[in-house]
User: Fold these one by one.
Assistant:
Number 1:
Amino acid sequence: MIYQCKNCATALRFNPQKGLLECDACGSAYQLTEYEEPDTADGKIRLELYSCTACGAKLAVNGTECSSFCSYCGQPTVIYDRVSDVKRPDCIIPFRVSKEEAVDLIRKQLSKGPFIADDIKNFEAEQVRGIYIPFQLYDVNYTDSQFWCGKIDSFDTYHMRKAKVLFHDLTLDASKQLNDDLTRHLEPYDTSKLVPFHSAYLSGFYANCFDYTAKELENEVKYRCRNLVNNKILKTLPNPEEQHLRETYPYHTILDSKYAMLPVWFMTFRHKEVPYTFVVNGQTKKVVGAVPYSKKKAYSYLGILTAILSSLAFLLLHILFSLLRIETVFDIIVREWVNWFVVLVACFIGIWEAGNMKIKKINKHINRTKESTLQHFAKNRQEE
Amino acid sequence: MLILIIKIALAIVIGYCCSYFIMAKRLYASNDYGDTSGKVQDFDCGTWELEEKNYYGPYASEDWKHDMTKAKNSL
Ligand SMILES: [Zn+2]
Ligand SMILES: [Zn+2]
């Protein structure tokens, strides 16, 4: 459905900052209420589907924006697929962030990073797409009684935990094309700003297709509720590593669910021929993504810092040794300082390991940004 | 002489480990955005009621089992 300017018949675009439909040609602006939506008695809307031949992504377009680059893999391999009737959403959070703002947010983040390669800082931001992602929002009543037993200092302990939770607008990504980990990082959305769906909101934007079945999503709801509850309960248990869950009686009822479209900006850029996709929450401006670090920058930083801190440590050790009157190796052995030194080294290796965990996390997130996210999914689907 | 080598070795270990940690921390702040997995897990949509009961004393295990059967039957 294309909405045309009443003045000059040019296709209109939705302006996120003003919340109006605007005409690029003559500058007119219209309220959405000035346009009637076509009859949607069958609960469907008509959209034009495009698909990417490189990664298999499918995107729906309402209006004139035509695709040349794939938002997921950054390849110029997008072709027109067909007109399709898709399930009509109940509600929508319209874009609040404009394209320029989204790119600025990412650029601001990247320009600050001391370890980011210069060519990434000056990224080419041509492939920017505003995409509405389908989400299913659930109100769930969840109860559970859990019986735990375990040990504290070799004493047997017994615990019961009862949870009664009323989840409101639990958001669940309803598009298989997206990495769930990624969409979860985009949360939270302010669902109090949901408005009834109008297809004019899609003008100038893309939409992802709802491709989960209700059954699949309901399983996911159960799983997510259980995870949230279990995590919370685990925190209340004394000595949780030594506790075992003996019996659990989970029960959930879905009270209400609605299909909503939530706004996400996608921006793909290339670094050494590899595409990276950053996403920005189109409502809250939250930026999600990780970029590779320049090894040269990181290692030179590490080298210089090591030199400085080691000299400092040497000075302190020198003072410590003279205070303790350690003059020869013999003193260390006879006065049993060896154990203390082992403990000291172990502590610092612990600090190193904490840093290492962080690095592993960064690498994981960089991979996710690289894979975001269709290539991974498309590959899985082909293997089936 | 040997004591000097020990001092240097210890100093390098300390210096390197701390530097690595600081670098990792700065790298995380510099190159990784939007990681709030902790917060997402703790998200507050909804109302929570949590009841905790810990069993003590000589009959702890019997009381616990009793409550367990009760919970099972009430389903
Ligand atoms: Zn016009
Ligand atoms: Zn693609």
Number 2:
Amino acid sequence: MSDDQIAVHEPHAKPTTYVEPGPADRFENPGLPPHRPRRADVDDAAAKRAERQVTTLFGLSILGTLGFIVAYFLVDPNLRASILVIGHVNLYHVILGLTMAISLLGIGLGAVHWAKTLMPDTEIVEERHLQASDQEARDEAAGILSQGYRSAQLHRRPMLLLTAGGALGLFALPMALQVAGGLGPLPGDTLNHTVWRKGMKLLIDPSGTPLTPEMVTQGSVIHVLPEGFAGESSHGEDGPSALEIMEVKATASVLLVRLNPELIQSQKQRDWSVDGIVAYSKICTHVGCPVALYERQTHHLLCPCHQSTFDMTNDCEVIFGPAKRPLPQLPITVEDGYLVAADGFAEPVGPSFWERGE
Amino acid sequence: MTTIPQGAHAVRDQSAAATETTADDADPKLPPPVVYLDERFGVAKGFGLFKKVFPDHWSFLLGEIAMYSLIICLITGTFLTFWFVPSMGHVIYDGSFVPLKGVGMSEAYASTLDISFDIKGGLLIRQLHHWAALLFIVGIALHVARVFFTGAFRKPRELNWVIGTVLSLLACVEGFAGYSLPDDLLSGTGIRAMNGFMSSAPVIGTYMTFFVFGGEFPGESIIPRLYIAHVLLIPAILVGLFAVHIFLVFWHKHTQYPGPGRTNTNVVGFPLLPVYTAKAGGFFFIVFGITALISALVTINPVWAYGPYDPGQVTAGSQPDFYMWFSDGALRLLPGWLEFELWGFTWSFNIFLGSLLLLPLVWTILGVYPFIEQWITGDKREHHLLDRPRNAPVRTAVGAAAISMYLVLAIATINDIIAIKLHLSINDITVALRVLFFVLPVIVFMVVKRLCLSLQRADRETVLHGTESGRIMRTPEGRFYEVHEELNEFDRWHLVQHEAQRPLSLTAGPDTDEYGVDRPVGPLESLRRKLSDFYFKDRIEPVTPSELAAAHHHGEAEALPGGTAQAIEESVDRADETAGLRSDDRH
Ligand code: HEM
Ligand code: FES
């Protein structure tokens, strides 16, 4: 590699071989401009000063490192403080971070300053060779390949190539099948149902209190889970597992709102309600975030993820945003004074999926 | 191009004699450990590597930022694995963060709280990891922009560009996977959305979600699976591809900006030992140090404030980390009518387009760009000198237009925040952004292209008439003018070195044969000609020596104090003529 390098000191060195393509009427590359010495190159005091700056930075780094170690042991990890602009912080964390930053920045800035002031700043020219090999090398490579091909008898026995190719092309399939097949159960019709069944009580999430119609006041929104999945009833020995509760929350969460019965526009919505109390799936029909915001005046439900907006007075049709389908309604009725499901959801809840129309 | 360090102006023009270091170590010997290694591996033969030359430019540091943040992520991430428990098993929190005591949560979330509150310095490592991850992706984005706008992706580096695009995609996926691990309310909502994205895929969607989540959402598999992807699978591919990426940079030798003495067949810069080692090594510590500084002072992802994931809850203003904003924004802009039922199946293009399709699409376009440009230019030569972005106006404008589309999508992610802050209707903002997505790129394209052409024209002006010297002269008639100083040949070279690419319709001959009959051109070739026209029809050629000579001839008066005012005006007119835009359809 050393042969490739020519240190260019004289200012007007012309590049050796390069010919610029294009029309003849072009300027010529003037070669590297003359080197200008830096102050530290010609002035000893300046060089000394640069050295001092670099050693100071390295020294600072050492102090930072020591500071980190001392702080690690001596500062109380729960030390908290208010810092201007930043606000309330864990001071222990801040001290560790700052000492570490000093330790690192000292090295970094020192090294770069050293390179810029004291290391040579004369640019070196290295030749570059085109990537492509010359014809001779290519011919030789072709010879090697062809020789390998022929000595393996592939040119005379093509079936060897075909079967070997076929076998190599297929051998990974069993592995792929195993891993893909083992990843998860087939969906079946899991997505078409939730746990809601006829007669299940509507419980307040998270307390688990069963609801009577009187408890649902106008203007409030109540988050509801099916009987057995909220509050005490979900904790017992034979209660659902934490995993089951998560799955139920992800599919069967319901919002309960009392509307002025006159506002309700569709007959279906009225049939499935109790005195203006309507229950709708809380899972957004876009990609499944909980539709958590209720606007009292307009009776709109808003999904905080991508702002799909559903009109509760019009059977939760989408009035804005990227969702397409209305939130599914849960039919409810009253049994023994409590609000219960009159049936499960009539359609799949949550995000769209390929087979949901079937 | 030589850098003149602070305070050195006084010695600018002194002789260079004193600068050479004397060889005071006339007979250097290899240190014993190197001798030991050389006897076993022949390492001394490879020491030529230390003399390898690297060109120096601030924009080359952008890739280094990405490289160093990757290393910081690897180090801090390994630390995190010692304490992080990738399990969705249910526990009751009993750590030292009082507000969450007694709350049920996953082990993943609980262990993230432990890292943040009960492991000394654990919070610092978490913050370093997250900030380095963000810096990694910012570094990649800026690096890609540098490579794009300077044409560094041209032959022979096309394949390294492809590797780079794969790396950047993996970086985003890796970041998303990591972000999801703590299983807090915010990241859980992100996983919920990912589940929705997958189920929107035609035909295989439902199967895909069940296979990825190991059953119905949320299940218990997703965190362990994301974990192994995050700490093993993706890092392994990432590091492997990165090694190839950086090897190819060595192999091809770094590109360099054009300048005096720099040609397509050399590299001008500093040797690896000691200058580049000190600069690049030092820069690693600077990047690490700045990451530590930010981590100390600015909290990122305070998971304790969000609470554990609960599928029935959500925080308002949920946004992913910034690099996923464009995808989230696309989901907000795509209208609901893109979902429909056909043949009994549900086609959710409103979701599918913005999520599963958008990412591969964006990265495919990015990946094939060099091949498309090469096809259009027909330029099969090797390029080791970078373009100044202004000298490739259409490429620069296309890149800027693409960035503007990206930004519109990214801004759409905060449409709710904008609506609240600016008291605007979210409907109006969304509609406006939908329109902007199509209109803004066109405007940006036109503006940037014009800007590049004007800059090129200004370059020509400078070459032909020199720079303003600040000296005002008065003619005998009493008129004032400013003396212009001619550029020296080194400064001039920057402005005249490039070639203006000509469209194929000029270089490939006319479309009619010698009898005036249309030469049959296939539809593909005709498309190629059209694109070539689109790219290169409007162009500004660099000043040629004869043009400069002519300008001198006409502009004599300008250079000579006391020349006549008429001569000045004449020369200005003439410059306007020569610098005129060449647009081939104007003739
Ligand atoms: C370039 C690569 C990487 C990126 C972009 C990245 C990104 C992230 C992000 C954004 C988080 C969330 C951090 C938080 O705020 O809690 C995270 C968490 C995590 N990462 Fe990485 N990471 C990378 C590499 C690695 C590697 C190589 C490992 C391990 C070998 C690792 C281990 C972890 C662990 C254990 C967590 C969870 C701990 C926690 O969240 O506190 N990461 N990662
Ligand atoms: S999940 Fe509700 S709008 Fe996207």
